[in-house]
Amino acid sequence: MKALTQMLCLITLSAAISACASNDIRWTEEVKLSDGRVIEIQRHVELTESGFPAQRRGLDKYQEICYPPMNIHWKARAGYQPDIFDIVDGKAYVHVPLGACAECSAHGYPSPNALYFVWHDGQWRRIKHEEFPESSEWNLLMQTSRGSKETDPQGLITIEDKTTGKWTDSTLRLDQKRSGWKRVNEDYYWRDACRKCGPSGPNATSAVTPIFINDGKNSCQQ
Hints:
Blueprint: H1 2-20, E1 24-32, E2 38-49, E3 57-67, E4 72-77, E5 84-88, E6 91-97, H2 101-106, E7 114-120, E8 123-127, E9 156-157, H3 159-163, H4 170-179, H5 193-197
Parallel strand pairs: 1-9
Antiparallel strand pairs: 1-2, 2-3, 3-4, 5-6, 6-7, 7-8
């Protein structure tokens, strides 16, 4: 009986700790498009965890973006975090900087070190960087977790929050102000990442390795 009681206590404690360790981060974000319009998108990040008893939150499992007015849904594996969401001439585009050798290698060491997508017929289609709108600039929050639930993005994150407020991505903003770049893959720490990893490969338009999570689930709220 004593052993059973101890086991039940451990199970209860584990459940309580798991409930306290939030691995889902959800918020609404204002995004300024290249034509000056401001829209609201929904964002969701799920994190890994270390397991009982520590229950520390880890790295991203995936990044999710929803824009219900156009039925747009982005759900990509860790390592593919967009820095640009734009709508040009009625088409939605996403830009994904590559900063790790694993992703660079998996996609043929693209130059410049980024992947480009357009929303077409209800799915994301990879395109060449020449097809991506020249006017599109960095407009998405990049620091999507800060270690604890209390400091996670939540509620509505405004343009002001991201440019002059608490969610400024300060290191990137300072380098952008100094260097004048418009996309994260041009930042000092990201620049030429794929070239430094290995041989320059073709700027292919089809994915070499899976990027998206097609599990039929999304957290979009209409």
